[in-house]
Predict the 3D structure of the following.
Amino acid sequence: MTYTVLLRHGNESGYVATVPALPGCVSQGQTKREAIKNIKEAIAVYIEALLEDGLPVPTEAGQELVEVEGGADQRRWSHPWGRRLAE
């Protein structure tokens, strides 16, 4: 299976990796490489736990990147919650 992994750099905490399709699947590392290695392990453990509990393994819905052009009033919003991420 393939999942989208989001990497966010923290000033002192290195990188935090999350998997939107797997709620609560989070890991971190001091470098991007370490964070990716750790999130791969976290994904494997997450899926193993679901299977052991007889729960379905989520598949990722199709993703599409969209570029939005705007002036000074341009904003990014997360979906589906509609929470403002940046101004």
